[in-house]
Specification:
2 domains, disordered C terminus, 12 strands, seven-stranded mixed β-sheet, 18% strand, Rossmann fold, 367 residues, five-stranded parallel β-sheet
Length: 367
Amino acid sequence: MGPAEALRRAIAEGRLQPDPGQARVAERLEMLCTELKNRDEGRRGFFNKPKPSPRGVYLFGGVGAGKSLMMDMFFDTAPVRKKRRVHFHQFMQEIQARITAERARKNAAPMLRVTRALARQTRLLCLDELEITDVGDAMIIGRLFEGLFAESVVMAATSNRHPDDLYRNGLNRQLFLPFINLIKQTLNVVELDSGRDYRLEQLQAAPVCHHPLGPEADAAMDCAFDRLTRGANVQACILMVQGRDLIVPRHAAGVARFTFEQLCAQPLGPADYLMLAGTFHTLMIDGVPLLTLDKRDQAKRFVTLIDALYEVRTKLVMSAAAEPGKLYGTGDYAFEFQRAASRLMEMGGRDYLAAARRPGGARIDRA
């Protein structure tokens, strides 16, 4: 079963809605699967020479169009043994660490060593959410991809931007332009234009704050998570924050899910919350309690978290003991909390849900 059949099956089972744009992309990815199968079966061309590696795919489109969903279907069905699917920021963090290790060992040509090692491990590399915001990444990405393509690694990538718009207005962008040309020469640039923002539709389909706590709120949160992730693979990962590990217990398709205890009863601070806000487009929090005076520290962390999400325009879905304005009582810190309550109510409105996210510099360190 290839991506096109996987999509048709999901529609027949009622898990997805028919979408002509997604169907066209699935057919294109199906063609790539066939080309990969022919290559890995060792089929030969003229004069018994190995057939060249197929062109990969650069899939771009608007927020919520289903790019990660298409990538999941392609990766799951691609007939390649050595394949890897990874968030772009996680991948770049890994590359930086590998280059640093090669330099520490005083090895010559560290980039060449890194690309050859990657090529031995991975023949199909799927990168999700390719976005260049860091000048360090911009300076090495061209040499990295050129080396991987030279080693016949096939690549598929998703991005919110056309290649021509990557790293726009970035520092020393003229040095980045050869990478854009490399992408367009080596990958088929495919747009996913569904004309719909499924993510926004799913966020608007139900309240973003489910209260009071109990079985109904739990069921509503599970339903929201299923709608927002749309069948994507749920997994855990670890973010690196100032040299520390921040565990994300569940995430899929850009949605991360935590309990209130995991986020606000632990010694986390602004850097942790900004990392989460920059990495995931939507955060789900289960079990926000009434924040009584004995939970003042937790209330302060919660306010810091809300400020971080609001700053980046990250979306929020949560279950809570009460509506936002009634989560914290009177007394010490009540005034400060009311600002957070006001933001929470704004974050449930259409204008906020439809707003474009602001750039964040988060990176996933390892899965």
